[in-house]
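Same chain as my last thread, 209 residues:
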Amino acid sequence: MNLTRNENLQGASAQQEPLRDRMLDLAFREIYETGFCGLRVDTLIAKAGTTKGAFYHHFPSKSALGYAVVDEVLAGLADDVWGKHLASFADPIEGIEASALYAMQRLGPRCAELGCPFNNLAQEMSAIDNGFRERLGALFARIIANIAQALRRGQRDGHVRSNIDPDSTAHFTFSALEGTLGVVKTMGADASFDIGMQGLRQYLATLRP
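reply #2:
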């Protein structure tokens, strides 16, 4: 299973994957469930069915592995959800809500329990590792830029009010989505997601002409 392409990021094992892809796959799942600090290289090597030599051939350090998860796995997910999927909607207001739901589908049934892997890793590592902070900051900026681009397209086509600022609106919208998932993770209630999405839906409705 390649997490950047598979529809469900917590799907079944795929032993036929190239070793590097399999290690990235496993590392993502371990980080998502236990955090980067909870990731153990020896455990990952055992699950991947490989050796330390093979691991360090692909990743010179645990940090290098973590950076690759951000650069390849999380970036691939972001580009799929907030790039291709969002761009497929003529109406960006519909597209934003649909893309948020699609992201949860991609992450699998434990998304409400585990939260957003982007924000989890940012909260855990940004203050203590500049490599993570810079990569995740650039990834967040790319997501926000994609949402802003969709809003500009919506303004051009008459779906979005012409007097809103797409950049600040996109920043607020993405922040609201991340905050909603954080509340759901902490409170452990599906109702929290429904309430948060209802609030976001009401906000997005105010963007219409």
